[in-house]
Structure formats: C-alpha cells, structure tokens
Amino acid sequence: AQSLFLANIVEEKQSQLNLPVSILGIAFKPETNLLDGSCAILLKNQLQDMGIQVETYDPHIDQLSL
C-alpha cells in the first residue's frame, strides 16, 4: 500500500511537471546486489503499469562500461 501511495504521488507530479522519472538505488539493502523483495522494483513496476517510463540506476547492480 505504501508503494502504491508513492506511485500515485509520482504520477501526479510527473503529469504536472512533465519531467523524467528516475529511481536511484534498486537493491533490497544498501550497498548490496540483492534484488529479492526490492521496494524500488515494486514502485518501478507500479509506475510502468500507470504508463510512466522509469529509469533506474544502482551502481551495485548496473554494470558500468568504462
């Protein structure tokens, strides 16, 4: 319920400001690469279900090409 509450706030603000939506940090716990039970992924999925394009970044998950 909390994630859906946040998704509704993001949807409202995104429609008002027309800015891109990004989520920084998607791991379940800080400084890990664990994704099981990630609230950030749940939020991303809820926003995408609302038709909002969402970018994510987590240095512990994403592979950086140098």
Rg calculated over all Cα atoms: 13 Å
Strand order of the biggest β-sheet: 1-2
Order of helices and strands: HEHE
What is the number of beta strands?
2
Mean of pLDDT: 88
The percentage of residues in β strands lies in 5-15%
Q: What characterizes the major β-sheet?
A: 2 strands, parallel
Task: Name the assembly state.
Answer: single chain
Structural class category = alpha+beta
**Segments where pLDDT lies below 50 for 5+ residues?**
none
Shape: globular
Distance between the termini: 39 Å
- As a percent range, the share of helical residues equals 40-55%
| Number of separate helices | 2
What can you tell me about this protein's structure?
By secondary structure, the chain is α+β, with helices and mostly antiparallel strands. Helices cover about 40% and strands about 10% of the residues. The protein is built from two helices and two strands, in the order αβαβ. Strands 1-2 form a two-stranded parallel sheet. β1 (about 20-25), α2 and β2 form a beta-alpha-beta unit. α1 packs across α2. The longest helix is centred in the first third of the chain and has 16 residues, at about 1-15. About 5% of the residues are buried. The mean pLDDT is about 90.
